[in-house]
Amino acid sequence: MFHRLIIILAFATFFSIGVFTLRDYGINWDEPIHYIRGQAFLRFFLTGKKDYKDLPRLKSHYPNNDRPPLSLGIEYEDDRFFRRSIYQYDREPYHLSFAYFKNGEGEQGGHPSLNGTIASLFNLIFYQKLGILGDIESYHLFIVFVSSILALVVFLLVSETYGTFAGIIAFLSLTLYPLFFAESHFNIKDPVSASFYGLTLYTFYKGVTKGNWRWIIVSALFAGIALGTKFNIFFAAITVLIWLPVLTFEKLRSFIWPFSKSITLAFILYPFICMGLLFLLWPYLWEKSFERLLTVFTYYKQIGSTLYQPISYTLLGINTYAFSWIFFTTPLVILFLTTVGVLYALKNLFRESKKTAFFILLWFLIPIIRVSLPGTGIYGGVRQIMEFVPAMAMLAGIGAYYIVRLLHGFIVVTLKKFNNRVVEQWNNRILLALQALVILSFIPITLKLISIHPNENAWFNPLIGGLAGAKEKNFADWGTTLGSVYQQGIDWLNEHAEYEAKVALVKGVQSNIPRIKIRKDIKFHEAYFSGKEKRGEYLMEVTDYRWSLDIPLEKRRYIEMLKPVYEVKVDGVSILTIWKNQ
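Above: the chain's sequence. Below: its structure in token form.
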């Protein structure tokens, strides 16, 4: 009963906090195209319609048609009579509807579409039909929901083998991981990919260890959904292909096939179910299927085989960027407990009957190794391999279990030398006290995340001196927020900007900020930048690692001469600045 209560509380707590704080975050730069495509595909799946001609038109924000050139995101909807998402987009000269994406014009061999389609379903239900969430927040509800499911899976997998306490620590380690907590609100790709990756591995593990083919089929379904989000799921196969022979070594050594006929059949069906879902739910692959699929593989190969950072991040051919990011952006308590968990997994590699710790260790290492091998790379931090985070959290839970067990044993043995009867009376209390101390060790990171909310994904740990230290050392991609921080700038402008003020982004484009988030009288477009003419517009931009790389030197020097009127800071470092060009 207690275990079930913890399960319910774990999911409800993280989900509720996620929903309650949705409004604090902006959108990811990549989100608009995912939702535009997702809405087009969802409408076709549900109605067979390929456009929005039967829906009321979106209304222009600007009175008297006084507006800058049309681009994504400048429309808003008067939802007093009908709610329509701004991403159900079909205004001239753009035709971003079903045919556009199905024919490949908007795909270009990039990421699959299923995450955007499911998020659009959440928008349809919770915004368009029920009206209980805003347009943008309803899309983000999907991310919070699947991230909460992942937190539940992390608790279950660890607690089933190592006990409730270890499961609680694993849950805390995931939900208080700064990158995961922040981006589970607005990153439509990576937390979603990590969640379905985790569900795939968890259900596969259950199927194998329980000898139940139904779990394997469920795993195949989750793998297909994961594949429909990003192709990262292919690397889960490496975890499985290493773990299975270790798990069944004794039978294999005796030339005995270790699986039943039903499990074997489920294994055979697995890739067909997985790939079948990808083809079924991604209309882009309905024509020229294998040619287009090859294009997608080429896309992933190109983005994954580039060194994006200075050569100084390479050591003996190994790309140390991901290792460095994890080392400097993981809370110290989680870093310590994970290290202990890794040691436990290595020590007990052949001792555990289900090889659970080894399974989790592979889950943790493979995503990191794949972007660290010679000729590989990632950018923008480690969000693209977020699959390692739940595994790291589980290792932290195992590490906490191991430490408490060792300390408890040491204390009991020591006290028995003085008074055996007292030890018997206090045995459970000693154990609970040690567990409580470990749980309390998460208070500092909890308070820190509260203090920098909603900019948790810009956090660095004390080993590098926080974000200030990362900036001082010019650590690659410090301060990266994926554009979510724009929301805080918009909140300030909505409150402080004069009537009919003009706003321009310095390097970003208009689709980076949903037009419906901006006060209706404010005129917003990148074309309003007037430079030395000083027409009094507000200039806003993220001021992170790439600030000095993406903006022409002359333009940046001019803007930096202006006095900021507002800044968003973490550890005293500005990650977004607003200037008044006057």
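The longest strand covers residues 573-580.
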